[in-house]
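User: Hey, quick favor. My workstation is busy. Could you predict this chain's structure for me?
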Amino acid sequence: MNFQRGKEREALELNLVPMIDVMLVILIFLMVTTTYTKYNELQINLPSADAARQLEHAGEVDVLVDAQGQYVVNRTPVAYVSVEQLAGELKRAAGTAAEPVVVVSADANSTHQSVIRVMEAARVAGLERITFTTQASR
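Assistant: No problem, here it is.
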């Protein structure tokens, strides 16, 4: 016996809103937790610079790094003991300049670590502006 003979059945409906919400939560989770490594995929060839010589500005702190990792700050040799000691030398060399610029001139054969020490010492000393010198290509 069919007691619902004249009554039409309601059409079935697939509600996609909850499924879209779940997919967005999964997408956000994957975006937050995924690490993007670019070091393995990139082949880096460092360029040589052919720029015009910049004028010297007041408040520049010149730091020279030779191939053996020895430092010279404003024409004064500095024996490396620690980053804090090098930071003190940079701060002393900057003096009372408003916005001193640390100019790093590193030998092509100097170690990466010796340049990073200068950058870390500049950060500790509160010197935020750092630039690097290059040699014009021949």
